[in-house]
């Protein structure tokens, strides 16, 4: 154990031999540790135990570390987290448990962490969440749950997370969304549901997300996009549906989204667009429609009448430069859609 003396105030604290210590923050990474090392000051403000060999967090594992504001336990081999493992960590704001082997967490795991703002549980092996796992986390702002094996989320699972702004549920096995699954998330701005197994999306499941701006649904198996109730989602600005199986779009969906600015529908199975749908796209500034199954008939003529800018679009082929970028149909034709024969020189199309 080394003795670390701080110039101001005049005090000394011990630093375990395998750790790096700085301003009451202890970095004990990549040392093959199976538990927190002896000698870490109980007044520590931060503790990093990343890339070690910890397999279990026992009750009162961090007893006495009442001043901790951040704790990083990612990239270990943790399979079990006992109840009360984090008891006494009332000042903790940032907890990282990602990249472990956690399959289940008790309901009361985080009940003492009343000031927690960031929680990372990504890259674990969880198949389900206990109904009250996040109960009491009223200051939580960022929650990472991506890359687990979650098949569903409990009704009202996030009810107490009234300050949550970011929720990451990507790369799981979600097949459906509960109607009240996102109840309580009144400040949520960004929701990630990409790379799951969702087959249908009903916007009627989202009316409680009154602050949401960004919704990511790409690379699911969505074939049905509907809105089962009349309401107006004024806050949503971006919706990414890339890589799904959507064949038809209906006007009622976009009537619900009057302020949508970015809509990405690349790599779906669209063959044509209803002119009534296009009429609902007047707020859009960016639309992605590449790699669909477009019919090269007059059924897509309605596209020529809608002057929507394709932002940040870089031409990939010479023919991309033939037409004005003001026309969304340029994006459709020149980005590898499965279209029949089309005469690029037939400018009368426009």
Short structural description:
The protein has 350 residues and is mainly beta. It has helices at residues 251-255, 275-279, 328-334, and strands at 2-6, 11-15, 20-22, 25-27, 46-48, 56-57, 70-72, 80-81, 94-96, 118-120, 142-144, 166-168, 190-192, 200-202, 214-216, 224-226, 238-240, 262-264, 286-288. The protein is elongated and about 75 Å long.
Which tags fit this structure?
single chain, 350 residues, mainly beta, Leucine-rich repeat, LRR (right-handed beta-alpha superhelix), two-stranded antiparallel sheet, 3 helices, 19 strands, 5% helix, elongated, disordered N terminus, disordered C terminus
Architecture blueprint of SSEs:
Blueprint: E1 2-6, E2 11-15, E3 20-22, E4 25-27, E5 46-48, E6 56-57, E7 70-72, E8 80-81, E9 94-96, E10 118-120, E11 142-144, E12 166-168, E13 190-192, E14 200-202, E15 214-216, E16 224-226, E17 238-240, H1 251-255, E18 262-264, H2 275-279, E19 286-288, H3 328-334
Parallel strand pairs: 4-5, 5-7, 6-8, 7-9, 9-10, 10-11, 11-12, 12-13, 13-15, 14-16, 15-17, 17-18, 18-19
Antiparallel strand pairs: 1-2, 3-4
């Amino acid at each position: 154990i080394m003795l670390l003396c701080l110039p101001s105030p005049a005090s000394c604290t011990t630093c375990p031999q395998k750790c790096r210590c700085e301003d009451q923050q202890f970095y004990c990474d990549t040392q093959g540790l199976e538990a927190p090392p002896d000698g870490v000051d109980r007044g520590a403000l931060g503790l990093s135990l990343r890339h070690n060999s910890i397999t279990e967090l026992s009750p009162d594992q961090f007893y006495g570390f009442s001043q901790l504001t951040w704790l990083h336990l990612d990239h270990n081999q943790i399979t079990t987290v006992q109840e009360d493992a984090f008891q006494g960590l009332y000042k903790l704001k940032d907890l990282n448990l990602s990249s472990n082997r956690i399959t289940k967490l008790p309901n009361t795991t985080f009940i003492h962490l009343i000031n927690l703002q960031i929680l990372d549980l990504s890259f674990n092996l969880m198949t389900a969440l206990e109904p009250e796992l996040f109960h009491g986390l009223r200051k939580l702002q960022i929650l990472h749950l991506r890359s687990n094996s979650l098949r569903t989320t409990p009704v009202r699972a996030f009810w107490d997370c009234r300050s949550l702004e970011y929720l990451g549920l990507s790369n799981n096995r979600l097949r459906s969304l509960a109607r009240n699954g996102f109840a309580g998330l009144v400040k949520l701005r960004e929701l990630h549901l990409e790379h799951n197994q969702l087959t249908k999306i009903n916007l009627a499941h989202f009316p409680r997300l009154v602050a949401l701006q960004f919704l990511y649904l790409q690379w699911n198996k969505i074939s049905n996009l509907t809105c089962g109730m009349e309401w107006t989602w004024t806050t949503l600005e971006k919706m990414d549906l890339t890589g799904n199986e959507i064949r038809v779009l209906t006007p009622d969906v976009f009537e619900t989204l009057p302020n949508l600015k970015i809509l990405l529908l690349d790599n779906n199975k669209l063959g044509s667009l209803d002119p009534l749908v296009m009429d609902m796209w007047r707020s859009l500034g960016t639309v992605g429609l590449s790699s669909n199954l477009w019919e090269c008939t007059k059924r897509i003529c309605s596209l020529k009448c809608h002057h929507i800018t394709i932002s940040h679009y870089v031409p990939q082929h010479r023919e991309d430069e033939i037409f004005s970028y003001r026309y969304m149909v340029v994006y459709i034709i020149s980005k590898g859609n499965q279209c029949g024969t089309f005469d690029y020189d037939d400018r009368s199309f426009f």
